[in-house]
Specification:
By secondary structure, the chain is mainly α. It has helices spanning 12-24, 30-42, 54-58, 60-64, 74-82, 84-87, 106-121, 142-145, 147-151, and strands spanning 45-47, 125-127. The chain is built from nine helices and two strands; from the N terminus they run H-H-E-H-H-H-H-H-E-H-H. It is globular, with a radius of gyration of 16 Å.
């Protein structure tokens, strides 16, 4: 999947292309097997960014009630507050940019979870990561900690 120069997460087409790329990913194909094998052989760390589509799994309303929102860092909250100019004032302003509908991203999230599982099961190094440049919720590390419950 390539986005090219000028790609921006405030462009709805970015999210359409991103989720489509995940949905269409052939995780059993030769290219994927070669990639997984090289990651394991070279012991390249993969930092997950499962938070990108987290709300697709649980929905916006439950996320708004999640007590873990208190762990979102002040820096992430400040950056997200700047997004209000693009998304308008909303009750989920600190969770989601409002640029795409996360309820349509469930299959993309499942593929991302599968990549994490396949690499881990093959002996690859999966490290806790965040996509704090995109979405502040859930807080960093929560998705990886829950990997066994949601991806297994």
């Amino acid at each position: 999947m390539q986005f090219g120069a000028g790609a921006s997460m405030v462009d709805p087409n970015f999210w359409i292309r991103l989720t489509k790329g995940w949905e269409e990913a052939d995780l059993q194909g030769e290219g994927a097997r070669t990639w997984f094998g090289a990651m394991v052989e070279k012991q390249v760390n993969m930092g997950t960014t499962l938070d990108l589509l987290w709300i697709a799994k649980f929905g916006s309303e439950p996320a708004q009630c999640d007590p873990d929102r208190r762990f979102v860092t002040p820096m992430a909250l400040a950056r997200q507050r700047e997004m209000v100019a693009h998304m308008g004032e909303r009750p989920d302003w600190d969770i989601h940019p409002g640029i795409f509908d996360p309820s349509h991203c469930g299959k993309a999230l499942e593929k991302h979870q599968a990549v994490t599982r396949i690499l881990h099961d093959a002996g690859g190094l999966v490290v806790g990561g965040t996509d704090c440049g995109a979405l502040p919720y859930p807080p960093a590390g929560v998705c990886l900690a829950a990997r066994g419950r949601i991806a297994g």
